[in-house]
Design a protein that fits this description.
The radius of gyration is 17 Å and the shape is globular. The chain is mainly beta. It has a seven-stranded antiparallel beta sheet, with no helix packed on it. It has one domain: Trefoil (Acidic Fibroblast Growth Factor, subunit A), CATH 2.80.10.
Length: 190
């Protein structure tokens, strides 16, 4: 029987021909979205600005200069994973989690309120590190007890977000860098 540490790993998360990163990194400035409120189909006030810089998105590789792939610590618990950010200074130690609208972003760990994910193989089977003998795998992510992760556009923003969707979701390239990885705060864990 393998331990949770033995099923935990560090990897990059990529998409073919698109960069996966935080919106501020992808667009080079704060990612501002304008919310407009409507009631009964009528505009009811001044648009509210929202800073979405900490949210995850994707952008075509030909649109921007090369950026390093997002590096995450996949911490296993049973057959699901909590994703900790390892490669982005302002967000290192934060988790990839959903906001109230189901959009993924960098959030401080919040115990049971932190989103966890299942890694799905080509047949939509749940996988752990034990099922991934090679270092590169094509996988989908599914928020635990919820929807698949895919791309979407939000009203009032020109960005492509990564979020929980009702459809099957996007196929990520998972590139494993280190297996049997421990928490940074507990390197002697078995």
């Amino acid at each position: 029987m393998t331990t949770n540490r033995q099923k935990s790993f560090i990897a990059t998360l990529e998409l073919d021909n698109r960069y996966v990163e935080f919106l501020q990194t992808l667009h080079g400035n704060p990612a501002i979205r304008f919310d407009t409120f409507a009631s009964g189909g009528f505009y009811t006030g001044t648009p509210t600005t929202r800073n979405d810089s900490h949210l995850l998105g994707s952008r075509a590789q030909e649109e921007i200069e090369a950026i390093a792939p997002l590096t995450l610590y996949f911490r296993c618990t049973n057959d699901y994973y909590t994703l900790y950010i390892r490669s982005h200074d302002p967000y290192t130690g934060h988790c990839i989690s959903k906001d109230s609208a189901g959009v993924l972003g960098a959030f401080l760990p919040a115990g049971s309120d932190t989103t966890s994910f299942n890694i799905l193989g080509s047949q939509n089977n749940i996988m752990t590190l034990e099922d991934m003998p090679n270092d590169i795998h094509r996988v989908r992510l599914k928020a635990r007890n919820s929807g698949h992760i895919g791309a979407l556009r939000r009203k009032g923003a020109p960005y492509s977000y990564l979020a929980e969707i009702e459809k099957q979701g996007v196929v990520f390239k998972l590139r494993i860098i280190e297996r049997n990885a421990s928490f940074l705060s507990n390197p002697d864990e078995i």
